[in-house]
Amino acid sequence: MKIPSEAGFTLVEVLVASALFVFVALAGFEVVRALSWNASLLAQRADAAAQLAVAAGMLRSEALSSVAVWKPASTCGDAVEFMQRDAGGASFLLYAARGGNLVRAGAAGPMNPCDAALAVQTVVTGVAGFTVTPLAASSLPAHTDPVSGNADGGLLVPGGITAIAVDAHAADVDGSHITTGNSLVEVAIDADPVLTTVDLLAGNRPSAYTQVLAYTCNGRCEATGPFPEIRNAAFTDCTPGYDFENSATYYVPAGYGYAAAGNGNQRIVVTAYSVTGGYTFAFSGPLPATIERTWPVAVWPPAGSPLAGTIADAFPVDYTSNAIAARGAAQVAADLGEPAAFAAELTACADMHADTTFDG
Fold it and tell me: Rounded distance, CA 97 to CA 345, Å?
């Protein structure tokens, strides 16, 4: 009797199966490797984006407290420099790329970006590029953001731009005068794989209507004579005023109580209000405009005021006859401490109004 042989795989079948296993294993490895690479790239991108966000915030903060922002002369790559001034005098800050990093340096005078002796601190690591581009105010309507590709033309009207350039009363390391005004300095930072741009404008100079009040002499100008810094700012007068009306847009009840209504009855009364408003500054000149400084929302009468506990207005509020309407915008502002908060602007605007250089 013939015994049947056991079933098995031929050599060809074993080789084919082995080849398929190797192919599938390699494919799986490639998938895992790709996922790992993508995760690493995402982590790298997130880290770079976080560093650039911090750097952009630092640059904007430096600009807001500066009297001048400019691109200094350099033979070793772009840099951006800031000049700041306070009661202690002038100080300078420099940002530049060194050794693949964005670094920051400070000194009492303008700095040479190529000076190896500068004491620096690292702001962003792994910087592949650092580009600084000055932009004249008149060029902004035609300017295109290098990262987003968006044009600024839709935001700006060429005919409404008045170029302002004033002397910052300091010389750069190459001997040239540092000027300031409403020109921008555009900074592009490439921390591969992330690229960002930051537009910088000196915050303490007459770069726009909002800046005229931020930098008038008031003891801070180094030149003599009334308002030498803003004579070319195309303004002829400044008149302060109030943005405040007796309506629910500007104040609403914030506290309630009860008052006798006769025959043993009581009525609801308003004992305090939540108030807001603002100062307006009307500029005359070739490009007249009005700007505003808004008061933060506050409760009136404030705690500790002699008026606290004395208000008992009818409810619902009669906006033609109540304690705030009787008090008036100027006195309400004084009660809330706003004149103290805006004393510099109010003084500057009043002085500008009185100066014959501007008035008339």
Answer: 38
**Whether 258 and 157 share a structural domain:** no
**Number of domains the chain is built from:** 2
Alpha-helix runs per DSSP H in the chain:
11-64, 209-212, 323-327, 329-335, 338-341, 343-354
142 within a domain of the structure (yes/no): yes
Instruction: Answer yes or no: are the C-beta atoms of 102 and 130 closer than 8 Å.
Output: yes
Cis peptide before 72 (omega within 30 of 0): no
Answer yes or no: do 108 and 237 share one domain.
no
pLDDT by residue for the chain (360 residues), tens digit each?
555 555 566 766 656 666 676 666 666 656 556 555 455 555 566 676 778 888 888 888 888 888 889 999 899 999 999 998 776 778 999 999 998 899 999 999 999 999 999 999 998 888 888 999 998 877 777 778 777 777 665 555 555 566 667 777 778 888 888 887 777 888 998 887 778 888 888 876 543 333 333 333 333 333 333 333 333 345 567 778 889 999 999 999 999 999 988 888 899 999 999 999 988 877 776 667 677 778 889 999 998 899 999 999 999 999 999 999 999 998 999 898 887 777 767 776 776 666 554 544
Residue 137 forms part of a structural domain: yes
Q: Which domain holds residue 292?
A: 228-354
Do residues 79 and 143 share a domain?
Answer: yes
In a domain, 130, yes or no: yes
Residues 190 and 292 in one domain: no
8 Å CB contact between 120 and 105:
yes
pTM: 0.49
